[in-house]
Amino acid sequence: MSGRSLKERPSRFLKSGSREETFNMGAAFGREARGGEVIALIGELGAGKTQFVQGLAEGLGIDSTEVNSPTFTLIQTYEGRLPLTHVDLYRLENPDEVSSFGLEEYLEGEGVSAVEWANKGAGILPKERLMITIHVLEADTREIEIQATDQRHESWLAAVMAFIARHKEDA
Ligand SMILES: Nc1ncnc2c1ncn2[C@@H]1O[C@H](COP(=O)(O)OP(=O)(O)OP(=O)(O)O)[C@@H](O)[C@H]1O
Ligand SMILES: [Mg+2]
After folding, report:
1. Which residue from 51, 58, 72, 93 could staple onto 64, CB 3.0 to 4.6 Å apart?
2. Ligand 1 centre and the CA of 2: distance in Å?
3. Does the Cβ of 120 fall within 6 Å of ligand 1?
4. Dist. CA 4–CA 115, nearest whole Å
5. Residue 8 maps to a domain
6. Strand, helix or coil for residue 137
7. DSSP per residue over 77-90, as a string?
8. Each residue of 62-84: pLDDT tens digit?
9. In a domain, 48, yes or no
10. Residue 39: inside a domain, yes or no?
11. Domain with 132 in it: what CATH number?
């Protein structure tokens, strides 16, 4: 039903050399979002998932300093040009817990959602999403692997890649 499988969609790889660069990538995704997008973020402790989400918030017109890991609440929403739902599943012990706070309804909403530690909730995330894996290469260097699972997220990703390319030319 969901069209082509994950395997058939190409991964894009972006390099980030600083916290700011990861933030700016997130902001590009925020600017190009149209609503209904879901990002599954994967990466070790300190990889930069929250930095990315703070940038995403800024790109949606939300004060990024308000965005922190919703460690104790699991889920936090912010009002911007589009609403942002920020989820952190790090402390999730049992996938059944998420149904108790209605995660699915948030993720199906009109806003943009970003889920840190998405690998802990793989079974309950929408099939249509953007997978972002942050690989730590060195102290400040990250390789960011991005893959869409459906055409809508693929179009978003293409728009963001074009935005980033334009921005590089301007710099
Ligand atoms: N290229 C980079 N991109 C992102 N963060 C970087 C980079 N280089 C260094 N950092 C630092 O790495 C840390 C990333 O922290 P962040 O809270 O975003 O990680 P996280 O993946 O959300 O971790 P957690 O799993 O604990 O939620 C920050 O201290 C940031 O300054
Ligand atoms: Mg985090």
Report:
1. 58
2. 33
3. no
4. 23
5. no
6. coil
7. EE-SSS-EEEEE-T
8. 999 999 876 667 889 999 999 99
9. yes
10. yes
11. 3.40.50.300
